[in-house]
Amino acid sequence: MMTNPIANAGQFAAEAEVRAMWQEAATRAARDHCAQLWRVGHGNDVPPEVEPLFDGAMDAWMSNYLFKAAARDPVRPRFVRNFMPGYSWNGAAVPDARMGGDNPDNCYRLAGIAHGGRYRVTGRIVDARPAHVSFTLVENWGTSMTVQTVELPGIEVAPDGRFAITIDDQPANGRPNHMTTNPRVKFLFVRDSMMDWERETPLALEIERIDAPAAQPLSFEERLEEALRRAREDVPLYYWFLRLSAARAVNSMPQPMRTASVGGLVTQASSIGRLRLEDDQAAIIRFDPAGAAYNSLQLAMWWYRSVDAHLLQSGLSATQAARDSDGMITTVVSARDPGIANWVQTDGLRDLLPMIRWQGLPERQQGEGPVHRLDIVPFDRIAVHLPDGVERMDAQERQARLDARRAAWNRRTGI
Fold first, then answer.
1. For residue 265, what pLDDT is reported?
2. Mean pLDDT calculated for residue range 372-384
């Protein structure tokens, strides 16, 4: 059986630190302050159905910053996974850390970086490699301010699947797989984007500092204090990201934009929308994969965190989805099963924030390029609005699909 590359001593130690951080009174106080700030931002526009989910979202918000604290030390760096739903392994519970429009197809990892330091990242493709992997130096805890990004495909990899990335404050000067810091750098932020959960596996990664730092490692208390401060400071930033969806007209989804201009992965194009579906309505969303290395449709709920994709088919990658004869992907977003393979489940939520992502787009346009079409239709008229040949699925096949999806997700939390 394949060893999970995330199940390593550094990750387990980071998770133990996060649990210890939650025991601090200052953490609870900061969590409650962040909740108050989010309440002020949302005002009275919160859909009543999501009120019971608020406390869980605020706990996850704080946990996300605690995981960043566990990753923050640039003197003794380590990769720490973040943005995951809650899970249990290694004999302990790991708290939910989803926030900020997280993508369930991604394995997110961070490691602390300091300008002036010299670092080496060693990586290895374990199994089927992720569809797309990005390594991004970021200037802020909110991970929206990019210094530099390198990507796989694009990184030089040896025939045995191994590679190395160097990081320091000097230009590459012909060095392959090199990244250059600036004085504001905080983290190396890694996204393994997996379109096939059953086969693709996050890269095995290690990071080491290869110079002799003059500074001492950051203490538990120093890292926690900064995390609690950054969690408060970043509420306005992520409220702004939320408004990219929530401020749109109901049941609208503009054509994609490049996210480099607003924060996030600089090589990504995305369509960000807002849905409000009654029980007798459905959204038909068709999109062109456009030859992207990675492409998916995912649903977020009002608190800007993913709907439970590890339990439900609340999103589909271009690999998981059945394609139409013209190469497009047709999905139906609805509370009830419409009997087509590409059903995207709402988990009973009416107000939803859908996002289509295209990463690693080819230089030359393929098909119609990164485009989509959205139609809101009566549930009992879905069939009239579907293209010919859309793949159907009965209840037994649906259960088998969900069982396989959950088993594939569990590869991420197996040891």
1. 67
2. 97
CB neighbours of 92 closer than 8 A, spacing ≥ 6?
15, 16, 19
Q: Are 123 and 163 in contact (CB under 8 A)?
A: yes
Strands (E), 113-152: 119-124, 132-138, 146-152
Sheet containing 178-180: order of strands: 178-180, 162-168, 119-124, 204-209
First to last CA, the chain: 10
Backbone angles phi, psi at 147, to 5 degrees: -95, -50
Q: Which residues pair with residue 110 across a beta bridge?
A: 80, 189
pLDDT tens track for 236-277? 999 999 999 999 999 999 999 876 555 566 677 999 999 999
Residue type, 255: Q
Name the E strands within 153-251: 162-168, 178-180, 187-193, 204-209
Chain position carrying tokens 């939650």: 22
Report the SS3 class of residue 348.
Answer: coil
- Phi/psi for 35 (5° steps) reads -60, -40
**Tokens found for residue 248:** 């749109």
Q: What is the pLDDT of residue 261?
A: 57
**pLDDT higher than 70, residue 1:** no
Q: Which residues contact 261 (CB under 8 A, 6 or more apart)?
A: none
**pLDDT band with cut points at 50, 70 and 90 for residue 365:** confident
Amino acid at 345: Q
Residue 53 backbone phi and psi in degrees, to 5: -95, -5
Return the structure tokens found at 194.
């997996």
| Burial degree of 236 (CB within 10 A; 0-12, 13-18, 19+) | exposed
Strands 343-345, 329-334: pairing kind: parallel
Query: What is the per-residue pLDDT across 380-392, written as a single tens digit (0 to 9) for each?
Result: 999 999 999 999 9
| CA distance linking residue 125 with residue 246, whole number of Å | 38
Q: Are 211 and 118 in contact (CB under 8 A)?
A: yes
Q: How confident is the model over 347-357, as pLDDT tens digits?
A: 999 999 999 99
Q: How far, in Å, CA of 105 to CA of 82, rounded?
A: 13
Instruction: Concatenate the DSSP letters of all residues of 15-51 into one string.
Output: HHHHHHHHTSHHHHHHHHHHHHHHHHHHTT---GGGG
For residue 301, how many C-alpha atoms fall within 13 Å in the half-sphere facing its CB?
A: 26
Measure CA 356 to chain center: 12
Q: How many Å apart are CA 229 and CA 34, to the nearest integer?
A: 10
